[in-house]
Amino acid sequence: xxxxxxxxxxxxxxxxxxxxxxxxxxxxxxxxxxxxxxxxxxxxxxxxxxxxxxxxxxxxxxxxxxxxxxxxxxxxxxxxxxxxxxxxxxxxxxxxxxxxxxxxxxxxxxxxxxxxxxxxxxxxxxxxxxxxxxx
Length: 135
Hints:
The protein is α+β, with helices and mostly antiparallel strands. The chain has helices at 4-26, 40-47, and strands at residues 50-54, 60-62, 67-72, 78-81, 90-92, 97-98, 103-104, 109-112, 118-122, 126-131.
């Protein structure tokens, strides 16, 4: 049988451990890997696409892991310059292959799979959905 003193000591120890665990969670920076919950601002900053109208000849730098989707023009291709298919890994997730041409298809989801930033410059006006690090 556990005596009253031992029960009280056990309850105090459990309460202290729970308090320490809770304090560790509460002291985590919002959006960090220690934070068990994703805050609204974190999701808005990291999880949402940004629509950008891109005039012809404008250069865009895509950081590693950055994503893009061509939304306009809805038909045809968007010819791009500056992309070097031999050095840069732009992945077409929709087709499941690496981009080897200098044209992007509308409604296809692309990701920079290179270990470095890549640059694209559309030869015609277009609209892109962008997510991740880009300028």
